[in-house]
Amino acid sequence: MSKNKQFVRFDNVDKSYDGKVLVVKGLNLDIQEGEFVTMLGPSGSGKTTCLMMLAGFETPTHGEIYLDNNVISNIPPHKRGIGMVFQNYALFPHMTVYENLAFPLRVR
């Protein structure tokens, strides 16, 4: 049994943009506190959509997302306390990789 507690949980999460096609279907995912997770899949498989839902920039069509055992599915991004880095790490080309990654953490 793990000593770490469940920190992020996707509970039967679906996402559809048009009400017909599910871009995320029945996602059940538990991430333990301190666990390092990589999402790997082809283009269009829902990786970014899942991260956008976790960050609060998208809402699930069905299911719930939990952070530290609290439902966050309908909490706005600025109240979640989650930092993010854009997919293009060089958001600010004049900065180093480290500076680009550190910037949102310092601003927060």
Topology:
Layout: E1 6-16, E2 22-32, H1 47-55, E3 62-67, E4 70-71, H2 97-107
Antiparallel strand pairs: 1-2, 1-3, 3-4
Word description of this protein:
The protein has 108 residues and is an alpha+beta fold. Helices cover 19% and strands 28% of the residues. It folds into 2 domains: 1-75, Rossmann fold, CATH 3.40.50.300; 76-108, no CATH class. The protein is built from 2 helices and 4 strands. Strands 2-1-3-4 form a 4-stranded antiparallel beta sheet, covered by helices on one side. The protein is globular and about 40 Å long.
Indicate the CATH architecture of the largest domain.
3-Layer(aba) Sandwich
The best one-word shape is: globular
Largest sheet data = 4 strands, antiparallel
Question: What's the number of helices?
Answer: 2
Which topology of the largest domain does CATH recognise? Rossmann fold
Strand order of the largest sheet: 2-1-3-4
Structural class: alpha+beta
As a percent range, the share of strand residues is 25-35%
Distance from first to last alpha carbon:
35 Å
Helix and strand pattern: EEHEEH
Mean pLDDT: 87
Full CATH superfamily name of the largest domain: P-loop containing nucleotide triphosphate hydrolases
Stretches where pLDDT falls below 50 for ≥5 residues? none
Number of structural units classed as domains: 2
Please tell me how large the radius of gyration is.
Answer: 15 Å
Level-1 CATH class name of the largest domain: Alpha Beta
Q: What share of the residues lie within helices?
A: 10-25%
